[in-house]
Structure formats: structure tokens, C-alpha cells
Amino acid sequence: MSKKVAVNAKEPTSGEDVLHFAPVAEAIAVLLKPHAEVVIHDLRTAKIAYIANNISRRHVGGSSLTDLKDIGSLDADVIGPYRKTNFDGRQLKSVTSVLREGSGAPYGLLCVNFDIALMELARDALTMLTAFQGSGKQPSALFQSDWQETVNAAIADFLSERGLAASALAKEDHASLVEALEQEGYFAIRNLVPYLARLLGISRATIYKHLREARRKKVQARAT
What we know:
single chain; alpha+beta; Beta-Lactamase; 2 domains; 5-stranded antiparallel β-sheet; 7 helices; DauR-like_HTH; PAS domain-containing protein; YheO; DauR-like
């Protein structure tokens, strides 16, 4: 349970206090825990007044300016969903409720930030398992007793052609390697993604990201 901490702010003029919504924030956070945080902003001070299930490493009393920039206009009562990026690069799906005085003037925001990174990873994995890419023919590697050896040879050829070392590959080299393996049909191998992630020292999510881009380029090339 998050500890309720008020921000030094001028006294509300008509009984409105953003911290009245702290129990609502806690209820939403408990329901969606550990994947979502709920942040209450006080527009009168432009500061964070409350955080439930903190996943963004922000703090009560911190500036609200970044959130206000992401949200933009406060004309609607509910804004979003819209995409945000967490401090660690993970993608968040966010929605904001505008808290208004009786006159309709906004005095606070209640923002729900939902971490969708695991969902996107699961989606990409399911897409990989159900999609039929290319001609539908299995690569020759699938007919050999040791597909890992064949993949290693393909990676070695890639590195040799470019004069690169596996330990010194940049992000763009990882993307090029994934694209090359996709062109040859190697991603039809069920366990290639975790194996490749382990060899390159990068996450599976990064492999899937490069693979999506490679397949987008392939579809685009066919269209033209």
C-alpha cells in the first residue's frame, strides 16, 4: 500500500483536493498490479501529488511537466489511451482522467500507466508460432541433425562478409543479421529466437523488434 503524502500546495478554493482520489488510485493499482501505476497530478502546483504502485521511479512532489506535455489539451474528460516510454525503455499504455471543479475548470489529473512490454513479447511470440512466412518451404537447416551448427555457420558467414566480430556488433548489425536470417527462412526454427538472443547477448524482445522490421521491409519490397 502506498503511503499517502501531500504536496505543499495552496489551499483548494472550493473543497477540491486531488488526494481525495488516492483510494481510487490504490484500487486501480491493486487490480492491475504489478503491471500498472496510477499517478495523481495537482495542476495548481504542476507537481505529482500521489503515486500508487510506482514503476516509473518518480516521486511525490516531482514535476508534472513531462506528463502535461504528453497529454496536451485538457478539453476532454478522458484522454487516451496513448503511448509513453518508461525510464527503462519499456512501453506504457496510458490513459488520463481530468479532475474538474464544479465550474468545469481542471485542477488535477489521474493517470494510469500500464506496462505492455510483456504483452507485446507474448503477442510477437504467438505471431511467430502461427505465421507462415516466405514460400512455406523449410530451410535446409531443419533437415540436419544439428540446426544450431547450421545457424552458427550462417552467422559466421555474415560476420566474415562484413569483417565483424560477434562481440563488437552494434545495434544496426544485430538488425542486419536478423534480416539476413529471416531472408533465408531460419526463423521457421522454433527455438531460434532464444538461441540467437543468447548468442548475441541481447533480449528476445529486441530480436522480435528487428524481426518485425525485417518482415515489414520484405512485405514492402514485394508490394513495389
